[in-house]
Specification:
Layout lengths: L4 E7 L3 E6 L4 H10 L7 E3 L6 H12 L3 E5 L2 E5 L11 H4 L5 H9 L2 E5 L12 H9 L3 E5 L2 E5 L7 E3 L5 H11 L5 E5 L5 H12 L3 E3 L5 E5 L7 E3 L5 H14 L1 E6 L7 H7 L4 E5 L3 E6 L15 E3 L11 H8 L6 E4 L8 H8 L3 E5 L2 E5 L7 E3 L3 H12 L3 E6 L1 H5 L5 H7 L3 E6 L4
Parallel strand pairs: 2-14, 3-13, 9-10, 17-18, 21-22
Antiparallel strand pairs: 1-22, 1-23, 3-5, 4-5, 6-8, 7-8, 10-12, 11-12, 14-16, 15-16, 18-20, 19-20
The structure holds uridine-diphosphate-N-acetylglucosamine (UD1).
Length: 429
């Protein structure tokens, strides 16, 4: 992906104002794929305007669905009619993996190039393919292309070797139309999975146990249309909270509660950071301290990422950014993806005191100065931006396109709450 645009961020401003949160990217993407499971219309409300979502719409259209972007509502109508994806999108979008489950269940075959996405790890599909094989599909993987076919899917007991979010969702979508009962064991328990099950159930699927590690599905003959409002994006919310923790100020996040961002709040907790929740929105206040260039004071903390309810790996880069402003030593261990510290090397260039030992980073406040950083993935780009917001003077975060995959109007929304940020094109020599 080219680094055609960057964010120029003049850090040091306090942040004040209201932020509207919309549907979570990671809930919306599988929901859109689920729209292929019925001929009737599926409406996913409150979708964010981000490139991953628009690209997903294009993927669905490619296999034959009618996709209408009706403001924030996306209407998917019509079952898929082909299982081969030719579009270049499938290579750059990890979410093309959701096509596996729905296309096997409806068209009976699927051929797709191994999905791309963030450069944060190898991200194989073995758990997805193993599960589909247990449902009766024949799956082959050769030269980066996956080919699966099945005459009929039959319910089975599937034990996943790891609680993969995508595999849990894929296998759910494949088994709702399979004959008989499917039991998924060692499932991921993320809130986005519960949100997807809400949609599938509205469509007529018979599912129980979502949010626990065992999900049971009784296959039905067909599914109907439905309308759903996905849960709000807890990672986007956590990114605003991270920026607030660093910059100080007061923000109201509409559409999310304290409980949705529990572990993130735990990582930012200190006497300067106060959070109130009225059930519909979350109000957070971070008081500045004179002795740190008037930034909010940060406390060190230990974070270990892992499957929900452990700390979300997608929040890790933002937490690292925040902890670069803390006095004590924070210990951040990444257990989900094997290559998710690239942002730390960029932060080090700007003075962050970071030592990385395999999957663990030791982070503490260094002598920070503004400069240039290169984002290599979506959440890393958000983390670098939050880091730059805490440093006085102008920094540049290259790779705005990565951030656009998951954050709606990133610079506009941060500008609206007081951040000095603008998007600039990279000048070609
Ligand atoms: C989803 C999220 C992503 C988040 C991740 C972990 C979406 C669209 N994306 O990604 O934002 O960072 O969960 O919370 O919801 N693995 C295998 N084999 C497999 C599948 C996964 O080895 O067949 C490994 C992966 O390489 C990774 C770990 O399992 O190391 C977790 O991956 P998984 O939970 O599947 O993440 P995604 O669903 O891809």
């Amino acid at each position: 992906m080219p680094l055609e645009e960057y964010f120029a961020i003049n850090g040091g401003n306090e942040l004040f104002g209201k932020v509207e949160l919309h549907g979570a990217k990671n809930a919306v993407l599988p929901m859109l794929a689920a729209g292929l499971l019925t001929k009737e219309e599926v409406v996913v409300k409150d979708c964010p305007y981000i490139t991953d979502v628009s690209n997903m719409g294009r993927l669905l259209a490619e296999v034959g669905a009618n996709v209408l972007f009706d403001g924030r509502n996306i209407r998917v109508r019509g079952q898929a009619c082909k299982g081969a994806l030719s579009h270049e999108l499938e290579k750059v979008m990890r979410s093309s993996m959701f096509m596996l489950g729905v296309l096997i269940a409806t068209v009976g075959e699927v051929k797709l190039s191994l999905p791309g996405g963030c450069k944060i790890g190898a991200r194989p599909l073995d758990i997805h393919l193993d599960g589909l094989s247990k449902l009766g599909a024949v799956c082959e993987e050769k030269d980066g292309v996956v080919f699966c076919h099945a005459k009929k899917l039959k319910g089975a007991k599937i034990l996943m070797r790891y609680p993969s979010v995508g595999a849990t969702e894929n296998l759910l979508m494949a088994s709702v139309l399979a004959e008989g009962k499917t039991t998924l064991v060692n499932c991921a328990r993320e809130p986005e999975i519960i949100s997807l099950v809400e949609l599938l159930r509205k469509m007529g699927a018979k599912i129980s146990g979502e949010g626990t590690s065992v999900i049971e599905i009784d296959g039905v003959k067909e599914l109907g249309g439905a309308t759903v409002k996905p849960i709000a994006d807890r990672i986007v919310a956590g990114t605003y909270l991270g920026a607030l923790a660093v910059c100080g100020g007061e923000l109201v996040l509409n559409g999310i509660g304290k409980n949705d961002v529990r572990s993130t709040l735990f990582a930012f907790q200190n006497r300067d950071f106060q959070v109130y929740d009225d059930g519909l929105s979350l109000r957070a206040r971070a008081t500045r301290r004179k002795r740190y260039d008037e930034l909010s004071e940060q406390l060190a903390c230990d974070v270990i990422t892992g499957p929900y309810p452990l700390f979300a790996t997608d929040m890790q880069p933002v937490v690292c950014a925040v902890k670069c402003f803390a006095d004590g030593v924070s210990r951040v261990k990444e257990t989900v993806f094997e290559n998710r510290f690239s942002h730390l090397f960029e932060m080090k260039k700007l003075g962050a005191d970071v030592v990385i030992d395999k999957d663990t980073a030791l982070i503490r406040r260094g002598d920070l100065y503004p400069g240039d950083m290169i984002a290599k993935d979506l959440r890393g780009g958000a983390g670098l931006s939050v880091f730059a917001m805490g440093i006085k003077g102008e920094s540049r975060v290259y790779g705005a396109k990565y951030v656009d995959r998951g954050y709606e109007n990133f610079e506009e929304n941060f500008k609206n709450i007081g951040c000095d940020i603008r998007r600039e094109p990279v000048k070609k020599c």
